Amino acid sequence: MPQLAAIRAWLELTETQILPRGAMAEPIRYCLNQWKALCRYVEDGRLHIDNNLAERALRHFAVGRKNWLFFQTEGGGKTGAVLASLLQTARAIGLDPRTYFRDVLMRIGTETDVTKLTPHGWKQHLAQDVADHHEDILCRLRDHFARAK
After folding, report:
1. Beta-carbon neighbour count of residue 117 at 10 Å?
2. Which three-class secondary structure string do you get for 61-127?
3. Are both 71 and 6 inside the same structural domain?
4. Where in the sequence is the domain holding 139, given as residue range(s)?
5. pLDDT tens across 82-123, in order?
6. One domain for residues 25 and 79
7. Are 130 and 99 in contact (CB under 8 A)?
8. Is residue 49 part of a domain?
9. What is the reported pTM?
10. Are 97 and 104 in contact (CB under 8 A)?
């Protein structure tokens, strides 16, 4: 891309003309150090220019860090990490975490295929059954209240 080539040429030339500790030196070095990522971003329109989505997903961990000191054991910490990973994955693929976790807890003792209990597996194999079941309950409730009037 000619525009990027021109920007890189300007950055490299300017870097030779400024003081190494000057006000412009740090931003120019940063840009040149991130050049590969910038080129990749320009090549693929599906990529985000920043990592705000990932940082927002990690915010809960940063806020709760001190609370996690009270897990008491290493096993408790590992369990917390697994649950947090499942929660964030469920959110990332558009599942309602409460519905997902409730259904998984109901099935965990009887489901033989563990991959169906992961967020992706659950969405593919079980989510529609749960949605249909919820819709069936709502229809029965509507019918019940319609008859009661």
Report:
1. 18
2. HHHHCCHHHHHCCHHHHHHHHHHHHHHHHHHHCCCCHHHHHHHHHHHCCCCCCHHHHCHHHHHHHCH
3. no
4. 54-148
5. 888 999 999 999 999 999 999 999 999 999 999 999 999 999
6. no
7. yes
8. no
9. 0.55
10. no
